Amino acid sequence: QDSGLYLKELIEPVLTCFNDADSRLRYYACEALYNIVKVARGSVLPHFNVLFDGLSKLAADPDPNVKSGSELLDRLLKDIVTESNQFDLVGFIPLLRERIYSNNQYARQFIISWILVLESVPDINLLDYLPEILDGLFQILGDNSKEIRKMCEVALGEFLKEIKKNPSSVKFAEMANILVIHCQAADDLIQLTAMCWMREFIQLAGRVMLPYSSGILTAVLPCLSYDDRKKNIKEVANVCNQSLMKLVIPEDDEMDEAKQSMTLPAEPTSEESISKPETASSGESELDITALNQPLSFPRSSERIQVTLNLDGIVQVLDCHLHDTSIGMMTRIAVLKWLYHLYIKTPRKMFRHTDSLFPILLRTLSDESDEVILKDLEVLAEIASSPAGQTEGHGPSDGSDVRPGPVELHVPARAGQLSSSGMKALECSPSTPTMNSYFYKFMINLLKRFSSERKLLETRGAFIIRQLCLLLNAENIFHSMADILLREEDLKFASTMVHTLNTILLTSSELFQLRNQLKDLKTPESRNLFCCLYRSWCHNPVTTVSLCFLTQNYKHAYDLIQKFGDLEVTVDFLTEVDKLVQLIECPIFTYLRLQLLDVKNNPYLIKALYGLLMLLPQSSAFQLLSHRLQCVPNPELMQTADSTKPSAGFKRTAASNIDYTELLQHFEKVQNKHLEARHQRAGRAEQLDRRVIL
Length: 694
Prior knowledge:
The chain has about 700 residues and is mostly helical. It contains 34 helices and no strands. Helix 28 runs parallel beside helix 34.
């Protein structure tokens, strides 16, 4: 009965024998300890740590008899712990944390079995100490033994059930980085299990997980590009990504950085223990917003913690993933979705990072995937149209991305006048569609990209510009590009770019409204736009004529065609005339073809078309236009009672107050520049040929 008084003297000599080289002695020591524990029962609990330490060694004993004896003692000790309510968990956790990192299979099995036992005892709250052992559990999950992996899965599953039942008492923050590490594990089971835990943590803890967003994204984003072999991991990672994104709210843009001293540490290591922060006052508005975002109805003290979004860390991770050319398409799309989401929710803070993000966003336009380009354009359009870009104290930096030459990074006066008309496209833009300081920079750098990557212009140029016209104000885009191209030093590129823009203007359904605006030239804005486009369109003679056809400036079109006799007629030039003839037969120019019926009031239209006919050689385009002009009726047969009245077209032209003489002079000036440039190129080519011959 008094054995409890002498347990230290009884146990210690026996435990010493556990280390003896003789297996028989170790066996009898195990048997002796079994009898001592059997008699003493609960009195041995103060000595539990030394008993556990000795048993953990015997669990890996090479002798089967010793191992068998240790298992009997182990079961007895588990029964005593289960029955007792005096187990010292606090004193045991340091030993458990140390032994859980053992690489021996039997020792791991022994550890897991004890964790399962302690989990099952109602009076023992092992959940409070889960941060101490979670990392070790995930390492055991990667064991080669299927049995041990299964036991560890069960233990982790039980912990997760307990977390879902009592989320208010869970130390989410202390375990966040442990999960981040194991979400990047090479072992599929470890990665999937950690990702499932991460999903639950984000959904249960809510904004408490925000300070760990950069680490979570580092782990989650690469998983989004996994193939079907890792479909489960990919699906869970996608849920994690979506749930984390929803935690970012507009209030994050307004939080004062001074509050950071009251918040959780941004990225603590897994070994740091985080003391419970004081709860914020119940009157804070953030509580209500956070509560609305949570799917669960029970209150959680962790939700009341003032959390600051670590935006710098998130942007750094996103930027790093965009620079990594080896990442998959779905990951790149997710990164761009995150950037777009952050610009929508926290524009003021995001614009501090715009200068560093801008170059990589522009480079992403060369991506192979149309989906990636679409998302990239959404981000760039938001940057270019967000009001936060205007209120920023500093403008965009004029670094290496700015076009060389006389172009400056400012919105020109003419383009500035159009910002009011940009309000008409409110439905097309994610934010207020005004041109901020980044809009013009975007247009400059986009044209620079097209100039340096001609393949991008050929394959994706039209696609990119059409999408931008949907996302931003089309009038602003064409006005600013025309203004930039007017000062373009590479005349060959300017001509190619004007041709591309003209084709988009004439054929894209997205620009129907802009075409109608130019067709009538009723407003000062439309006439201003026409003059701006005309000056740049002069880089390409045939596109200039097509612009005049679109705006119903038929007399000026005829005057231009008369000047074509002074130009150098090349194969490319005739090809463009051929394409213009094809366009005249398209639905876009239906109104022009109908005006051919009014011969008396549209003589210059007919003259201009005959002028094109005279430029063309005997080709299919010549036959097409010739047949069309043969259909023009005899003016005598078309006489009507009101034929003496002036036409609406002449009224419009008279009221437009456009100096067509000055425009014609500008056309000649630009074409002379192109002629000089061609001669210089030809001269350089001739010199090169001579060098080759020599």
